[in-house]
Design goal:
CATH superfamily of the largest domain: 2-enoyl-CoA Hydratase, Chain A, domain 1
Number of helices: 28
Shape: globular
CATH architecture of the largest domain: Alpha-Beta Complex
Strand content: 5-15%
Bound molecules: 3-hydroxybutanoyl-coenzyme A, 1,4-dihydronicotinamide adenine dinucleotide
Strand order of the largest sheet: 13-12-11-14-15-16-17-18
Radius of gyration: 29 Å
Low-confidence stretches: none
Length: 693
Amino acid sequence: MTTHYDVRDGIAVLTLTNPPVNGLGLGTRRGVLEGLSRAQDDGTVRAIVITGAGRAFSGGADIREFNSPAANQEPTLPTVIAALENSTKPVVAAINATALGGGLELALGAHYRVAARKAQVGLPEVKLGILPGAGGTQRLPRAIGLELALNLIVSGTAVTAETLAATRLFDRLVETDVLAAAFELAQTAANQGAPYPRVRDWRVKHPNADGFIAFARMGVAAVAKNFPAPLKCVDAVAASVKPFEIGLAIERAAFSELVASTESKALRHAFFGERAASKVADIGDDITPRTIVKVGVIGAGTMGGGISMNFLNAGLPVTILESQPEALERGLATIRKNYEASAKRGKLSAAQVEQRMHLLTPTLSYADLTDADLIVEAVFEDYGVKQAVFEQLDAIAKPGAILASNTSTLDVNRIAAFTKRPQDVLGTHFFSPANVMKLLELVRGAETGKDVLATALGLAKKIGKTAVVSGVRDGFIGNRMIEQYSRQAGFLLEEGALPQQVDRAAEKFGFAMGPFRMGDLAGNDIGWAIRKRRAIEQPDVTYSKTADLVCELGRYGQKTGAGWYDYKAGDRAAYPSPVVDVLIVQHSQDLGLHRRTISDAEIVERLVYSLVNEGAKILEEGIAAKASDIDIVYLSGYGFPLWRGGPMFYADTVGLYNVLRAMRRYATGHQGAAWQPAPLLVQLAESGGQFNA
Ligand code: 3HC
Ligand code: NAI
């Protein structure tokens, strides 16, 4: 049973008991309706209190049910809410904790609301690409006013109940014992008798509703370009000044349209994908994570500094070790500078800056790391340097300390073998800037202990990262795929495109940055070094030489003031470079290629499908456990457009049959050997399957 019914002192108590967050799936909706009927029929019941068990009043509609027959099966949420509203006995919602989306809408259907001051309330539907579909866009403006409701609904922000204390939403706010307060109110209401207040009967009053809505619509249109939901929220909230039933019909129509949209499906995929990423098949609740109280970081360069900041922000003390005093000083100064920049932007107070700096201990001696529970290495990307560091760590780290490497390309198993405790070693691949980027690839070595991985997963959550587990393979998940994408970008130049066209097409598709602008930002020398290594390790894998030619001119990107683009001092804008354009055209000629006009559609297909194909190989090899993990890597670390749900989800929406057909077409063209389709892709395409089934 997902609802519990009992009667205490003439009050029927309906408790939502559908863990983890009392989602309002079909079973729960039925339970509420049955409870209501029972209470109406029971002559001893004078009033009804509805509340939630556990950590929530209700997290809203059961999102997993969307687009399934159960979603529209009666009783739907609007039916349940109407039944609450029309109850002949007074109904009090006792909001014990979180009331979001349909949860808050349910409470808005009650005659009275009592809430815990700290309970989080809001209508976050927009974040899932939909709008409140059970009267929220009509009742919330009636309860808290047009402007405040619009802001909350369009942004999806949750606030504490006490934030809304000045509105009509809550009849009582209490520190503790919400249920007792609700009981008291229920008795008073029953004593007073009908009619009981219904939010639907209240009027939305605003001196200039049309003007406000027009202004809001302009602002929302400017920021919600690829998401249809925010504007629909504005439309529905605007209708709250009309008669209730008309507004409700407008809301309902918009909800039905949005819930079927690809954007909403993509956002829901991301919501569940992010949560699923932290679940690893063989790591259950029986695995006890280790305790992390003190952290060590080796190397105070670009990554070591950013990595340290994550822990400091979470209140964990960090000891940072360098080999050279100057490097240590430089690293510390950079950390302070970053914090002070945050303080200037008003994100941190001066006291918070000092608090964080106080938690940081610089050192040149390994002896200061003997009590660290976790040590993250971020020294030069070189086996020799890593070996020296890990041998030292093995000698000094306390038993049970976790030893992590931030390597971006090296073999974590080989690094683990530098120690006599490979079970304690894993890769923690942060992305640059490490204090900003959400993504953290956790690289599970052949011998990494389950408790070590469980600890890292828990810690990632604590420091606000989205962790995805990867097996050991060069480039892990993200960089391995991006290499194929970069290869295609290079081949496109040889065939007729220019960097600015490729970037424009990629950015129009929705990538935060096209491949060449990204190269200039990250430094083209990094890819150059990788290609040099590949030439030895995998001589049959081909790359366009254009990137090497650009690097040979010293054009490494923004850091050298020139790369694929030209840059001007004090200006981050990328200007198309005549030098690079000539170089590219000349290179095509040298290859004997006749340059052709390449459509933006072809550019996008080749960039995205190269990611998809490599992603399929990664899945096949078990380097990633599930397709959604790959999508989360791309959404949180590589600027893949959120509304497209990640490369694997996007391929599913295009249809794998269509993806495969395009790949086979490209396989007959220039550098067609790069288009060897992954067997998993072929198998799924031929059987009508999907990556994210
Ligand atoms: N439906 C289905 N499952 C849900 C859910 C929902 N509305 N909300 C949370 N869950 C699941 C999560 O997937 C997760 O499942 P898992 O344990 O299997 O991974 C579990 O509940 C716990 O969730 P979190 O890990 O996110 O737990 P937190 O404590 O960090 O956060 C929360 C709890 C604030 C409720 C957060 O889960 C959340 O924001 N949920 C979504 C809320 C939301 O968007 N509600 C609107 C739904 S749409 C709607 O109501 C339509 C209506 O207008 C008609
Ligand atoms: P960096 O060159 O900025 O910093 C490395 C630091 O390590 C330097 O300050 C150096 O003095 C210090 N160091 C070198 N040897 C040392 C030793 N034996 N003991 C103590 N300190 C030592 O390099 P960066 O960019 O921070 O990279 C560090 C690691 O992170 C590398 O493995 C790199 O591949 C990886 N990485 C880098 C990313 C990036 O975008 N820069 C992204 C993800 C991973």
